[in-house]
Every structure is written in C-alpha cells, then in structure tokens.
Amino acid sequence: MKIDNYHSEKCKLDELLSSHFFNCIPEACVMLDPWFYIVKMNSQAEEFFLLPQEYLMSKPFWEIAPQYINTNIFHAMYKIKNDRQNTSLEFCGSITNRWFEANLCMIDKYIVVFFKNITHHKHTQNELLRAQERLSAVFHNSHALMAIVNQDNNQFVSVNDSFADFFGYSANEIIGKTKEDIFETLNNQFFPPRIPEDYDNNSFSKLISVKSKSSDSSKHIIITSELININEKPCRLEIGIDITDNLRCQKELRRLEHLNLLGQMSASIAHEIRNPLQTVKGFLQLLQFKEGISPYQTHFNLMIDELNRANQIITELLCLSRTKPTNLKMHTINDIINSVLPLIEAQALAEDKIIMVEQMPVSPTLLDEDEIKQVLLNIVKNALEATKSKGCVKIISESNQTSVKLIICDNGQGIPPELQDNIGMPFFTTKQNGTGLGLPMSLSILERHNAKLDFISDKNGTSFIIIFPIVA
C-alpha cells in the first residue's frame, strides 16, 4: 500500500513539476499530437494566439489557424513529423503582421513548437538594412572620390564610380590592389599606407598631387582618411576631393591679377618712359658719327641696342594693357601662317632647324591680323629656342564646325613638371636674356579674341594648342 501511495505521490509531483517548468518557458510553447491537436500548451501560448486554452485544445491546429495551410510553418510541421529532424524558421503573421521565429522538435510521437515574437528585432533589422542601403547609395553615387581600404594589407576593398573614373579604371580593376598599383604621387609627396598613431580621432587629411598609371595627366586631390571597422576588420574610409580645376582657376586669377597690375602700370608710365628713351637714342645716333668717336662705335651700338630692347619691353607692356582687339576682320589662320612663314623659315634656317607646316582647310573667323601674327611669332620663337640643332618645329592648323585649332609642336626636352604651373606668368622665364613677357602678351591677345591656349609637355617635347571660336 505504501508503494502505491509513493508512486501516486511521485506522479503528482512529476506532473506538478512538469506543468510548472512548462509554464516557466519564456516562449510560447505548444505540443501537438500526430493529428495536430494541441495536447499541452503553456500560458504564454494563450497570449501568443490571443485565444483561451479551452478553445485551442478542442480543435486541430489547422482549424484554429487555417490561414497558415500550405505555408512554411505548415510544411515544416509535416516535414518534422516524417523525418524527425529539428528545424527552425521565421514567418510573418497573416493577420497582425507580427514576425515570429518557430523552433520545432520531436519528443516521442509529439511535435513541440516554440514560438517567439521577433517583430521588434525584425523591424530593427529592416531599418538597419535600409540604413545600409542608403549609405551604400551615398557611397556609390557620391561625386566625391570614396574608397574603403584594408588597414592590414593596404588593398582596396571597395571604391565608388567617381574614384574609379577619376583614375581611369573600372571598380573591379581596382578592388584587391594597392594605391601603388593605381597611382603615384608627384614631387616626392608621401601618402601614408595607414593612419599615423599621432593623429587624433584616427583620421587625417592631406593635399597630394597624383598621376594615374593609366594616364599621363597629373591631378590634385585632398584626401581624408578615417579608421572604421567593417565585419570586425580594421579598414580606412578615404574620401578625396578633386581640386585640380580649383587650383587652375586660382592660378588663372593670379595671372589675371598680375596682368591687371601690369596693365595699369604700363598705361600710366610707358609713354612717359618712351619719350626720354627716344631722345637719348636720337642723340646717340647723332653722336656716333662725330669725328673721334669711331673707336667707341661698339659702345654706341651696344647702348642703342639696349635702348631698342627697353623700347620693345615697353611695347609689350602696352600690349598687355589693351582690353580689346583694335582691328577685327574675317581672316583664316592659314593666310596668317603663310604671311609670316618666310620670316619663320629664315630664322629656323639660320639656327639649322626645320619648320614643317601641315594645313587643313579652315574656316575664317574674326581676328586682328597683326596681333595674331605676334602670337604666332612669339610661340614659334619659343619652340625654336627649345629645339636642338637639326630639330623640327611643326605648325598645324585644323578646323571643325565650332572652332579653329592652331598647334605648334617642338621636339625639345619639354617643360619640367615643377615649372609648368608658372607658364604664362608675367616675368617668369628660363632664358638668360628673356623678359618673361612674350607668352603673357600672347595670352592677353588671345583672351581679347575669346581664344584659349593650352599646352602638353613631356620629355619628347611641347605642344601649344590655340583654339579660336568660329563666329557665326
């Protein structure tokens, strides 16, 4: 009798403990028989289904929730009943739009399902995904040059289209490579492969001049580098701003300021200087023919030559002060080239050099013939001086529907990169006896014609390109 009582009490205790622990499970839990009737459920399941336990345990699960027939949870229950393999899945409530995680397992012949409300987690996950999509859109569509670099091996992890286009590659060609593979810095500049430890906030900025391995042109960018973590790996987010055009505009503004200052100076004092120079020159020419002066003819000739040189400088300064062409007429560049060609060829012949002319049919445009002759003579003179004996200077003319192009090429040693930014600045010259006013004067003339001057220079020579607009 005592044994029977012991077993009876033990069964009551097991049932009590089982019921207590079952209700202590924080998730909604239901146990289904092979016919999908609920044979046991905890209190959390009532809150989960929003229905009383008496109702839930009187019907098959699919009668209680017919909206889930032929859905993922439906197929998962039949699958675990057949192969008895634990499984889990996520699904969205068809009525409440709540998200749930279901974990299914088999205990003997019963299917046990744990339901967990993950709506908040899912919304947070979706918000995070949308935030990542927005950040990705900003990264890839930004006009700034943006790249993510692995901090350990200095290889590019990702770059946006602006970065790839700037250096003349596709994004796929850059990913996995290092900076040294893509571009080189100029003028002995150094861009550290990793952020120096002495920088605050793990970030720093630097202005560098770079040249892509796929292009000969140099560009200037400000790069900001900041340390970030991606998938728990240290990386750098590098953002570059192309300031090449800004620096070019600043250089042009400085040149224009110099020209403006020179124009004001020349307009106010040139005539006053020229008059006494002409007087001194006249008396020197008169005196050099007097008796007893012949031993000093060399000195007189030197003084007169220097006065002529001073007068030429004043003429160039006066040219800089002009604001518009004085005699605009319809001319073709070819006619102007042909008119000064004998003079150019004579100078080249005297220096044992060759002039080659390649003329295509060109459209006429409004030009001041004398001024354009002066531009042509100035630039050809510079080209001849840069060309060694037996060398060649080419004069090329061509035209399209909107412009006429004049190109003057030499095969000298080129302009050193460190001097190219100073080309066109007043008084800048590399010649021993140069004034540094020939090219600024030419630029001033071309500006009055709304023409543009550019140049390309490397170790094989220099080409000056002048583009005249065609006036309709």
SS-derived structural category? alpha+beta
**Order of the strands making up the biggest sheet:** 7-6-11-10-9-8
The Cα radius of gyration reads 43 Å
Distance between the termini: 123 Å
Q: Give a quick account of the main beta sheet: strands, pairing sense, barrel closure.
A: 6 strands, antiparallel
Number of strands: 18
Low-confidence stretches: 192-200
What's a concise summary of this model?
With 472 residues, the chain is an alpha+beta fold.
Report on the architecture of this protein.
The protein has 472 residues and is α+β, with helices and mostly antiparallel strands. It is built from 15 helices and 18 strands. The strands form four sheets. A six-stranded antiparallel beta sheet has the order 7-6-11-10-9-8. It has a five-stranded antiparallel beta sheet with strand order 2-1-5-4-3, sandwiched between helices. The protein has a five-stranded mixed beta sheet with strand order 13-15-16-18-17, covered by helices on one side. A hairpin with a 2-residue loop joins strand 10 and strand 11 (233-242). Helix 11 packs parallel to helix 15 (438-448), helix 12 runs parallel beside helix 13 and helix 13 runs antiparallel to helix 15 (438-448). The longest helix has 44 residues, at 244-287.
